[in-house]
Amino acid sequence: MNHPMSASEKLKEFFGFDGFKGNQEPVIENLLAGNDSFVIMPTGGGKSLCYQLPALMQSGTAVVVSPLIALMKNQVDALRGYSTEHGIAHVMNSSLNKKELMQVRTDIRNGITKLLYVAPESLTKEENIDFLAEQDISFYAIDEAHCISEWGHDFRPEYRNLRSIIKRIGPKPIIALTATATPKVQSDIIKNLGMDYAHVFKSSFNRDNLYYEVRPKVNIEKEIIKFVRKHMGKSGIIYCLSRKKVEEIAQTLQVNGIKARPYHAGLDATTRARHQDMFLMEETDVIVATIAFGMGIDKPDVRFVIHHDIPKSLESYYQETGRAGRDGGEGICVAFYDIKDIEKLEKFMHNKPVAEQEIGKQLLAETVGYVENGGCRRKFLLHYFGEVFDDSNCNEMCDNCRHPREQFDARDDASLVLKIIKATHSQFKAPQIAHILIGKLTARIKAYKIHESDVFGQGADKDERHWMAVARQLVVRGYLDKDIESYGILRFTPKGEEFLIKSEPFMMSKDHNYDDADGEDIVNLQKGTVALDDVLYKMLKDLTRKEAQKKGVPPYAVFQENSLNEMATHYPTSYDELKSLPGVGEGKAHKFGRPFIDLIQKYVEDNEIEKTEDMVVKSVVNKSGLKVFIIQSTDRKIPLDDLAKVKSLTLSELLDEIDIIVNSGTKINIDYYLRDMLDEDQIEDIYDYYMEADSANIDEAMDEFEGEFTEEELRMVRIKFMSEVAN
Question: Which CATH superfamily is domain 210-402 in?
């Protein structure tokens, strides 16, 4: 095969890039030499270029197998953006009509199409096999190759037939690509595709442009709004564990002037697709989503990923944060953490088989270890994937390396926690142990008469949060075990028994102080060029959206952020100047360049300036119609469960609405319903608790009453309390 141009020359000419990333060049050279390749490269490492560039350099058509229709469409749009030839890339799937399919086949026959993206289901159709068998195929690319393995996290049975179909079409080199693969999955892929002699290319899992930070979950809605406002106009994803929370956060962002949309499995397919397209086309800046979102997204310029809730495993966390900064630019990953989130996840596991619970516990322990870790977050994360990393190479791209936490030896505190557990015969959970230590009298402590013993109040010189952190570290490090069967009762392990006999250093890190932090230190993390002229950058960004809408493609298929940054730094006013910028190239300069050159020319002459606005956090206003309906219905003493059914709400969702009404200053009387649920003494006990408590937090009330009352019961008494006392 004659290649008049080198891979790096073709890279510059077509994509406008000056150099390769990581293993891209050896992978491409191996494929051009006609060898099979197995590529393990993390999200954002540039897997797609490993087959796109060789396809452009060879005669014939490369067949790219992918399970994700949205991802195929994104890549085809992007490739067409780089080329003056519309037919350079095509999708072949069941969504095409007869005329469109004929055009695809004509372009392949005429040698115009360099990449044909197919779903495995389409490749199994006889008519497609027969057609492709007659064509000049350059090679096969199997994307998301872990789908072949039953041990992979996204197994697709259709992938198991790919080898036999490839044989029928005609043997050619194969490149299999995946972002994650355990040794078991790896051997399964190689065996199933018959790639025994494949060159294996495994890249580092380090994404050096991503900044990792963990923050305590305090005033979270305000913190999220403040953060997003500081990155206004940039694309971001916010992950939440529940659909309900997704809707709440999306709505809160919207009323604060942020373009945000929800995405979860409870929305119908049309709405989900519309919201995803709005994100890709930059009609909305932020997607608030459950983990249902992200697999089919190949958006290179996601600038931040926020975790409202900590995920169940570090693998999930790595994949979700990996959607940021895929173009090598700025990628800020902020996770908000509250130990109660971990406890909720533990409760979800309670009814699962014991073996599954054990795996789940291990995964959660790793996650807690990551968020509570005082050292380099990048080092901890890469260690989880079996990679040794020198934390001096983090370059202050995590909060702990940027602001090293002060270490202290907490062996005396650890010993005291263990002694209290021993003295109270292992019958309390971590919050109760903390209450005993600080001398806080609760119903359970009173019932067991712990307040009369000498252990009560022994740790009163430190606060509850400190003792909770010590208890958690004792669990994470294996000195204690948390019994899920009994909802988190702390029990000794042999290692804990040994520590009581002979203590050893127990180093802990002091928490970061975020009280005064406003995010200033993480605004300018972008690697490479940052636009020197922010006003021009915003104008160019708007123009990109308009040009993309005209052509029906996502904005990044016109120009990516790094190219716009370069334009707003170097002010190109001719084709020659424009095409020399990174990520532009000759094809893009001629296809999209004229309006950008004109805009920059005019701007250079006019030179305008723009101011930013101060941030105001607004609350979501309750819908007035529902508010009136609830007030009228409770006045008529309609039972709350009947009221919830009428409005297609759960009881918990109805109580959310009543909370909003009561918290805004309106009295609601639900005594008629409450007295059917609880007797007068019980209502009085809970009412008295709210009168004495530091906050009206339901989780704290649940801890106080030790499961004696349901969450709904505690919430209803709180509504009564707020109506009578606060309003």
Answer: P-loop containing nucleotide triphosphate hydrolases (3.40.50.300)
